[in-house]
Write a structure and sequence with these properties.
This protein is of the alpha/beta class. It has 12 helices and 12 strands. The strands form 3 sheets. It has a 6-stranded parallel β-sheet, sandwiched between helices. It has a 3-stranded antiparallel β-sheet with strand order 2-1-3, with no helix packed on it. A 3-stranded antiparallel β-sheet has the order 10-12-11.
Length: 327
């Protein structure tokens, strides 16, 4: 019977040649060996992966729940994904005959996203989630991926994220702050899309101001209004040694070769356990808290498209290393 070999470091595994044309069967056969040995499998007849361009970057599949995610946020999400790996598969799932996905139709060709049509055959049943989950499992068993990016705020994907992690894949989640904690915790890393810079719309002719009537004075009994917590002043923030240590550690962990750290990645690190809650200090966003503590230089850089601005941070102590360092 014709055979071919797969090497595991210095060991050799000989398999029937028919399995070469059945990648799903081959993946299931070798996956157990991969997890038990902790080593990488490589087909002896194939070229070395290190010789291929971009082989040192993780290969990611981006699966978008278009029924749940916002089209205006996909540009910043894909830019964030590009900082951690290469998106080899990018798909958006939804009923594209529906008018509710009109905003998405303009984003698909711009970002080279494959649209997967899912007809809503039964009202009230989310067929999109099922189609996305099936494709995710097909991609898992086909092999060749290091991670999966799930763009949704839907807790229905909690079990999928858990299963993918059990198979050894890195799971990136992207959703709103309202995303249930179960889905956030199931992902290896979760990014709130509100913390990513939004693409600014192209300039248009300003519309004339609309005159609005003054609101009528209430005649009935008034209700109590919740007043947001007062913002912690800068001296108190700097005096919080635990907070300062967390902020500087996150900036240092996200630092690139030039010594600058992407603010979005810094905020993502600060949300990991134990998370820094900006509202505990009276701030709505982590970015506002980082700015208020005033420990870091900032640099605003336009994106390649020129439609958005990315903020970078650098610890001021690096600039003042020759002089008096800041607390």
């Amino acid at each position: 019977m014709p055979t071919f070999t797969i090497t595991i470091d210095d060991g050799v595994l000989r398999l029937p040649a028919v399995m070469r044309s059945a990648p799903a069967l081959l993946a299931r056969t070798t996956r157990g060996l991969l997890h038990r040995s902790g080593r990488h499998l490589a087909a002896a007849a194939q070229p070395s992966a290190s010789a291929l361009p971009g082989a040192d970057r993780p290969r990611l599949a981006v699966l978008i729940d278009a029924d749940n995610a916002q089209a205006a946020r996909i540009g910043p999400v894909l830019r964030e994904i590009a900082t951690v790996g290469t998106a080899t598969v990018t798909r958006a799932y939804g009923d594209w005959s529906s008018t509710s996905l009109t905003a998405w139709k303009g984003q698909l060709p711009v970002h080279a996203i494959d649209a997967v049509q899912v007809f809503a055959s039964v009202k009230g049943k989310n067929a999109t989630d099922g189609a996305l989950m099936i494709d995710a499992m097909d991609l898992l068993y086909a092999g060749g991926l290091d991670g999966v990016c799930l763009v949704s705020s839907d807790s229905d994907f909690t079990r999928l994220a858990t299963r993918l992690r059990q198979a050894g894949l890195f799971v990136h989640g992207f959703g709103h702050r309202k995303t249930p904690a179960s889905f956030v915790d199931a992902c290896t890393r979760f990014v709130h899309v509100e913390d990513l810079a939004v693409d600014e719309p192209s300039p248009t002719r300003p519309k004339p101001p609309v005159r609005r009537k003054a609101p009528a004075r209430p005649t009935g009994p008034t209700t109590a209004v919740t007043v947001p917590a007062q913002r912690t002043p800068n001296p108190a923030l700097r005096g919080d040694t635990k907070l300062v240590s967390r902020l500087r550690a996150a900036v240092e962990a996200a630092r690139d070769a030039d010594g600058w750290s992407n603010q979005a990645r810094v905020c993502s690190l600060l949300r990991q356990s134990p998370a820094v809650d900006p509202q505990a200090y009276g701030y709505q966003k982590l970015a506002d808290l980082v700015t208020a503590v005033d420990l870091f230089e900032t640099s605003r850089r336009p994106s390649q498209s020129g439609k958005a601005t990315t903020i970078y941070l650098k610890d001021k102590r690096r600039r003042s290393a020759a002089g008096t360092s800041e607390p």
